[in-house]
Protein 1
Amino acid sequence: MKSGWVAVLGGVLVMVVVGALLMVGQRVEEVRVVVTEEKVLEPGVWVFPKEQVRFDARFPRARLTECEALGDGKFGLVVRPENLPVNNSPWFAFQVSCEVERKVVVRLRVQGGNLRYRPKVSVDGVTWVTLTEEAYQQDEAREECVLKLEVGPRALWVAAQELVSTQEMLDWAGALERLPFVQGTTFGRSVGGQRLCRLDVGDVTAERAVVIIGRQHPPETTGSLALMRFVEEIAGDSDLARSFRGQFHCVVVPLLNPDGVDAGNWRHNLGRVDLNRDWKDFAQPETRAVRDQIVALGKAKKLRLMLDFHSTFKDVFYTQSDEAVSSPAGFTRLWLEALETRLPMYEAKREASPVPTPTTSTYWGHHTFGIPAITYEIGDNTDRALLKTVAATAAQEMMRLMLEMKDAP
């Protein structure tokens, strides 16, 4: 088969079909690239020669389903989820560029959910700025929004939240592994064959252990930002951190759903399953692998705490009730009270469900080991500096209380 190409001859756009055999009387069996006067279609990229505008969704974390030119510098985009039914967390991410500097208007529609995130833009995929009201409006039904963008030859990244990709998380973990008291291992593989990363922080021979997991749900980047700052405090250079690491073994699984993250999924792994609803059946390789790690840890030493980092519409800690039996008794109440004492401007909201969901990680952790098992939720729009301050302070108070209560029943 011959390679395809596009040329403009005397102002006429030439169309080339790639991957198809064109013979008289023979049906075209496969068409991979079609160039028309309006746009170029190929997997993950849409090029509009007349407008000189290009949309690209061929990078990890990208999600863009459809794209069309509406005329006069306006474009219609559609985003759909990986499968239905799905949690209402519409993720989108794409790049847009133009051969010349110009303004474009993007009309973005989500199908299968309602808009949850205020879009952010970046010129490098690392530093992000949230679009202001002057550049962003959405309809009352939250099914469609309009983005006014300044674009040029350098690609502009547009996303629901900061990307915090699998590679970013692995790079972060790799940096921590350079510390003498941190060990990194691969403990399993995802549905798509990606490595599941585990960090062992502190004295691996200590008789007490704390478990921290995160990123079961791909769009929940603020949860990952909080987890990283929380763990960095445990791995820090303070007297408190050194004392904690000498008496506790901390196991961290920062990214349980690498496939879903890189695919730009709204909620699920590649098995089309919400991993935080699979802690009863353990039908997915990711949840089976982390379960086996925690069970083995629990057989070897005394588990004292399990934290699972997520994102939602507000900062909140989902916990067991104070009446629920757990060891160390009273830890959750004391921890959140200490956090508010240290940060008077911050309300550590707590929600203890009388009927917890029996398929989540924290239900399993408490039910299996009788320990406090807490879902640490960070708001989608929580100020990023505050997020890190709270995470660092929460880690400090966790370590202090764990040391004080290390022998408590």
Protein 2
Amino acid sequence: MVESGLRTKPNEINLKDVAAAVADKQKRKDGEWVMQIMDEATGE
């Protein structure tokens, strides 16, 4: 199997800050909703 190098890696980026910077209101709300679902699913 060939490694593509496209792996998720830990970093210091705050996802909530990234979502808050999205200009489109609906896209920002959608992103926040997905983050909430993922938090509930992972227990974080």
Protein 3
Amino acid sequence: MDVAFSKIAALPFRPADNKIAYGEDPLQFALLWRAKKVSKLENKQQNLWLF
């Protein structure tokens, strides 16, 4: 399914929660967005890692 770039660009965005370096080069890093808690009863959070 093709999606127009304008539709993607219109999606909400929030900055990463953490920036984690894995080497000495400034471009060697991973961004971490922590998942929001689903409910007050659930106290677990899962991480999503994108490289």
